[in-house]
Amino acid sequence: MTLSGDQYEISAGPYTAIVTEQGASLRALACDGRPLILSHDADEPTPAAAGQLLTPWPNRIDHGRYSFGGETHALPINEGPLDNAIHGLVRFAPWRVAAHERHRVSLTHRLLGYSGYPFRLDLTVEYALDADGGLTVRQSARNAGSRVAPYGHGAHPYLTLGRPLDECELLVTAERYLEIDRRAIPVGAPQDVAGTPYDFREPRRLGATAINNPYTGLVRDGDGRAWIRLSDGEQAVALWAGEGHPWLEVYTRDEVTDETWRTGLGAEPMTCPPNSFVTGVDLIALEPGEETTGVWGVTAG
């Protein structure tokens, strides 16, 4: 048995993927054998949240403290150096497989009351591959408790072309972004990307630009999708976010100095920005019995 539990392999046409029992994480995704995301060994602790699902909040909560429904809550701090609660509560938990076919796998997890999060959610994720369209991921949450629950979700794949990001062109179809402070907490209101280093509305070389910022004001195509795309002139990989995700986090991993330094771009679809439990920005108040769903995907090209 590996550290990440059972491994669920799926395939369709040129695409293959591996999803893990631990966290229902996307451990690997490839097209014609070419990795589209940074992967890791099944018996290795997940590095830098690679491929994990971020529920019931994405990114950070300032000092792990927030108020909701007239009550104040304190979450365990799991980003010690920055004193934040980060990336939710389910990314290391075991998920149960609900369905597994050649091209798709669905997993579920019941999140019961937790220190600092006294709410109950039934969670479902489906990963499905299509020979032409690549990967589609559907994340859902149903409030199975008796009280309104604060909710948000995200995901944390690292797109890769197998070469340094400095050499790649980046496209982010977003018009605004949030600045962050030294503890990676957003400050102020969203700003126009025009005239800033964060403007990638037209593809351009990333170079040495460091990014660890949430984007919003997403510009969507005719299918309602916003895009993050890496290309090098010969090959490409892209993440799309459906309309249930009004935010995209882009992360260039500049503080990471291992052998994959700046070869993987964090491309994170999110229902809300970092620290939304504190600010309330795009925070979902999930009523008892209510369900919410967000869809995103990754494709080659």
Layout of strands and helices, then pairs:
Layout lengths: L6 E6 L2 E6 L5 E6 L2 E2 L17 E2 L5 E3 L2 E4 L2 E4 L9 E3 L9 E5 L3 E8 L9 E10 L3 E10 L5 E3 L2 E2 L2 E3 L8 E4 L1 E7 L5 E7 L11 E2 L6 E7 L7 E6 L4 E6 L5 E5 L12 E7 L5 H4 L4 E3 L4 E10 L1
Antiparallel strand pairs: 1-2, 2-3, 3-4, 5-15, 6-9, 7-8, 10-11, 11-12, 12-13, 13-27, 14-26, 16-25, 17-20, 17-22, 18-19, 18-21, 21-24, 22-23, 23-27, 24-25
Task: Please provide a written account of the structure.
- The chain has 301 residues and is mainly beta.
- It has one domain (7-300): Distorted Sandwich (Beta-galactosidase, Chain A, domain 5).
- The protein has one helix at residues 276-279, and strands spanning 7-12, 15-20, 26-31, 34-35, 53-54, 60-62, 65-68, 71-74, 84-86, 96-100, 104-111, 121-130, 134-143, 149-151, 154-155, 158-160, 169-172, 174-180, 186-192, 204-205, 212-218, 226-231, 236-241, 247-251, 264-270, 284-286, 291-300.
- The protein is globular and about 55 Å long.
- The chain starts with 6 loop residues before the first strand and ends with a strand.
> How many domains in all?
1
So, CATH architecture?
Distorted Sandwich
Main beta-sheet annotation: 9 strands, antiparallel
The proportion of residues in beta strands is over 45%
Structural class: mainly beta
Radius of gyration: 18 Å
Secondary-structure element series: EEEEEEEEEEEEEEEEEEEEEEEEEHEE
Shape: globular
Could you tell me how far the N terminus lies from the C terminus, measured between alpha carbons in angstroms?
35 Å
Average pLDDT metric: 96
CATH class: Mainly Beta
Order of adjacent strands in the largest pleated sheet: 10-11-12-13-27-23-22-17-20
Contiguous low-pLDDT stretches (5 residues minimum) are none
Instruction: Give the helix level as a range of percent.
Output: under 10%
InterPro entries: Aldose_1/G6P_1-epimerase, Gal_mutarotase_sf_dom, GH-type_carb-bd, YihR-like
Organism: Actinoallomurus iriomotensis
Protein name: Galactose mutarotase
GO molecular function: aldose 1-epimerase activity; carbohydrate binding
